[in-house]
Amino acid sequence: MMLYLMDVWATVRGFMAAGGNILWLVALVLFLMWALMLERYWYVNWVAPKVHKQIIASWNAREDRHSWYAHRIREAWVSQATQEIRARMLIINTLVAICPMIGLLGTVTGMVSVFDVMAVQGTSNARLMAAGISLATMPTMAGMVAALSGVFFSTRLDAKMKIRMEKLKDRLPQH
């Protein structure tokens, strides 16, 4: 098992070396994005149902559920629950949108490396130029893969949040 983990780590290090320093930035953004998404999944699936039960119990315990004031209180509770459940979604969506841009930054730095090799060595050294091309293409690919995974799961998370909020609104009748 330990040998397998060492092989995996060596493969990751080789990939990161081939893609340059920008890949570490992509990895950092990807880690942060996934940490925030997992926290939101945990909140939506385990914390929000408890909070919503408390809101429903508070609503059902009220004697006055028909007046204008009662409806404003209901709106305030729903609004507060919406803010709590949607917390950090703007950051997640921003990180998803930034991933391809970081990949393109890697493309630019890789191409600068290629032009630097061409200026110093000329166009006859294909191996050195290939290293720069690798520096240019690997971060772009990594940024796109990171963004695609983020788009898919953040969209699913957003849909789950909307369903959870609609269920809360349905369980708070407005007689």
TrEMBL record:
Location of the MotA/TolQ/ExbB proton channel domain: 62-168
PANTHER family the record matches: PROTEIN TOLQ, TONB2 ENERGY TRANSDUCTION SYSTEM INNER MEMBRANE COMPONENT EXBB
Similarity section: Belongs to the exbB/tolQ family.
TM regions (residue ranges): 12-36, 90-115, 135-155
GO biological process per UniProt: protein import
Name of this chain's protein: Outer membrane transport energization protein ExbB
GO cellular component: plasma membrane
Keywords per UniProt: Cell membrane, Membrane, Protein transport, Transmembrane, Transmembrane helix, Transport
Compartment annotation: Cell membrane; Membrane
Annotated InterPro entries: ExbB/TolQ_transport, MotA_ExbB_proton_chnl
Membrane topology label: Multi-pass membrane protein
Taxonomic classification: Bacteria, Pseudomonadati, Pseudomonadota, Gammaproteobacteria, Alteromonadales
Main location: membrane
